[in-house]
Amino acid sequence: MTSEELELIDTYIRQNRCFAMYRLPGEENGTIHFIMQTSEPLLSVSSPEELNGRSGFVIAPFRISPEKPALLIQADICSLQDVPASDKTYSNTEKETDYSVPENYMEYQKVFGNFQEPLQQKELDKIVLSRKKVIRRPDSFSPAKAFQKACRQYIRSYVYLFHTPYTGTWLGSTPELLLSGEKDQWHTVALAGTVPLEKGELPDSWNQKNRDEQQVVAGYINGQLATLGIRAKEEGPYTVRAAHLAHLKSDFSFHLPNNNHIGSLVGLLHPTPAIAGIPKDTAIDFILKNEGYNRKFYSGFLGELNPAGKTMLYVNLRCMEIKEKTLSLYAGSGLLESSIAADEWQETEDKLQTMLSLIDN
């Protein structure tokens, strides 16, 4: 993107425009897709099933509900150069977190202990504990330049930037596909297990904790698809690279004869055990009551929904929420009964580096 285009993007954020832009995985110099909605209001849905038959760029929170709906941006405009001029600007009046308060590992240990209890009591097989790191936004920080830098650095990830008056500004680089397909050919993945790369090299082997975590996620996906009578072809697990981390991944390919019920399928898959836990509803309820903060759109999903064409939805991992004075970075890790607090804290620290490396742009 040119310097003029980057300035346009930052201007659209200041003008409070509704837009989303993204680059698909594997495209180092790939197409930057841009959509903007100029009509009002944005469509909101209070359950995944309400996405059936809909199309647009979906922005969904961790748990869709009437109080926290998913939004769809319609493509009224598909080119940066076609956006009509506006002198409107806005000021974010939302109260921002006090970024001067340092993070507290001791507090994380307490929450970790609470999360371990249902695992030890066999009420849960797995649960995901996440955290938020809030830092001061540098005066020179440009969301558009950070997006461009992410496109260059994270070739294997889905890179996005979106802004609406209802969500604020979010930037991310996620390695995890939720659902993709067109016509009757569809695909989803299980992505779990995390280790940092050693000297840039993929690991030769994985410990039992990571293998168990991957198997939990893969088993869940097979089970959920089976409730619709779908027998998926599974390939994996195999090791993949995502930024400076390695993960275990399995692919699931299947036929879907009716594309008018994609929302219902998304509702079966999301939130997956990779971001919530098993059993699903018990884990979600525990997270909402005990994690201690609002995940907002972290570990939700986003992307193009198009029953008549191609759908590509991704889980919103490795992301940041951009405000006027602060940047909020999100990361989580999957806990099993065998998990150790120090290891899980370090895993989130490693994941936070994906966004931290973009801030000095």
Q: Can you describe this structure in just a few lines?
A:
With 361 residues, this protein is α+β, with helices and mostly antiparallel strands. The protein is 26% helix and 32% strand.
Along the chain, the helix and strand elements come as HEEEEEHEHEEEEHEEHEHEEEEH
Total strands: the figure is 17
Low-confidence stretches: none
Structural class: alpha+beta
Fold blueprint:
Layout: H1 3-14, E1 18-23, E2 33-37, E3 43-45, E4 56-60, E5 70-73, H2 105-120, E6 126-136, H3 143-153, E7 158-164, E8 168-174, E9 177-182, E10 185-196, H4 208-226, E11 233-242, E12 245-255, H5 262-269, E13 277-278, H6 280-290, E14 301-305, E15 310-315, E16 319-322, E17 326-335, H7 341-356
Antiparallel strand pairs: 1-2, 1-7, 3-5, 4-5, 4-14, 6-13, 6-17, 7-8, 8-16, 9-10, 9-15, 10-12, 11-12, 14-15, 16-17
Helix pairs in contact: 1-3
